[in-house]
Amino acid sequence: MKKVVAGSMVSALLALPSFGFELYNNDNTKLDVYASMRGYIGVGHNLSAPEGTGRPNAPTGYLMGLQNNSRFGINFSTGDFRAQVEYGWIEEGTSAGWRLYYGAYKTSSGEFLFGRQNSPTTDPGFSSNWLNADTGSLGFGGVALALRRIQVAYKIGGLNIALLEDKADTGVNTGRQDGAYRANAQMPRIAVSYTAKDADGNLFLKVGASYVRVSGYGPYYSNYSGPDYSGPDLHAYHAWFGYKPRFGNAYISFMANAGKNGDLYGEQSTTISTGAYTHGNINGNINSNIGYNATRIGAHLEFGYDFSKQFGMAIGGGYQLTTGGSRQYKTTGERDGGINSFAAFINLPYKVSQNLTLAPLVAYYSVAGDADSNVRFGKENKQSSVIGAVRIKWDF
Predict the structure, then answer these.
(1) Beta-strand runs (E) in 330-377
(2) How many whole angstroms separate alpha carbon 168 and alpha carbon 234?
(3) Is residue 121 a contact partner of residue 163, using CB atoms and an 8 Å limit?
């Protein structure tokens, strides 16, 4: 069975399971299974919790649970055909389901894929902040790490071109659902990316861009519409790049992204950390409070070093500016346009055995600015938190 090799102790944190149990390998036909179980335990503190509640210890609480991206799956290949199915917890919710199911056929002109697979424009491992289901940098300079969608894709070399369905049944719809106009997606989302690896097979460079046009959005984009409001046409897009050179036992990872309405399909977001494992908010959905046509620009920088084959370190941080949302106002009611999101973290992964890795992490988050004039992030329009936790990751 072919095994994925992670080029460093730190990069192994977010790699797909590099082990597996081979069930069959004969006559160019292979079948294997794999799994990745990920749990965490720690403590979080909300630095911006309201005062005067009579509960002085309320802002602090312990964190413990199973990461909602734990999974197991099956890889199958015969000749030029390969397929993968994966079942487990899904980042968008708290229940288990089918994460991946696709088939791909390789020809002399490239590979053709159909099914549920990761979007080509997600981050394959430029950030090692494992909070929030390995997307601890989303909304703080990073983009989504995993966003599985039904798609038709063409791959050749490092180039990946795909047409994606971000929400089911959102083609030409004229009726209503849940009392509001249904979405009218005027086209599939187009996603293009190029990925390059260094001579040792480590992730080195990735660039990507996505675009989709939608109109008549109702429950699909209910953040921005009322029961009798179909909404304007929207152009949603974003582009980003990541660069990760290695220098002996060290690496530098840098990525930057920019887009407009990128939250509509989930690969950009403006998020808040209140000291929990997952990013959240204080008063409802923050993207709703920002409104449509928000522009997001962000960057992430990280430095990593492997002290040995068992022990490594990563120090990083990121910043994102959210401006121009239709519901962004100053406290005086005037249009504003500035939500500043900042994060910093240190990660100290330790490889206990071939299958087991412990990753202590301390992270600080801060978000300041105004969204909807009726919404405040915390004390003085600022939401900050500190989180310290250990992730237990077991792969086979």
Answers:
(1) 339-347, 350-351, 356-369
(2) 18
(3) no
Q: Which residues contact 181 (CB under 8 A, 6 or more apart)?
A: 173, 216, 217, 218, 225, 228, 229, 230, 231
| 8 A C-beta contact, residue 386 and residue 59 | no
Q: Which of 99, 139, 142 is nearest to 123 (CA)?
A: 142
Which token pair is 119?
A: 């979007």
What is the amino acid identity at position 183? A
pTM of the model: 0.84
Classify 244 in phi/psi space as left (phi over 0), alpha (psi -120 to 50) or beta: beta
Residue 353, both tokens: 């055995």
Binning pLDDT at 50, 70 and 90, where does residue 47 land? confident
- Collapsed DSSP state (helix, strand, coil) of residue 247: strand
- Cβ-contact 141, 300 below 8 angstroms: yes
Give the number of other Cβ atoms within 10 Å of residue 197's Cβ: 14
User: Could you give the angle at the alpha carbon of 284 between the alpha carbons of 281 and 285, nearest 5°?
Assistant: 75
Q: Per-residue pLDDT tens for 110-151?
A: 999 999 999 999 999 999 999 988 888 999 999 988 888 999
8 A C-beta contact, residue 254 and residue 228: no
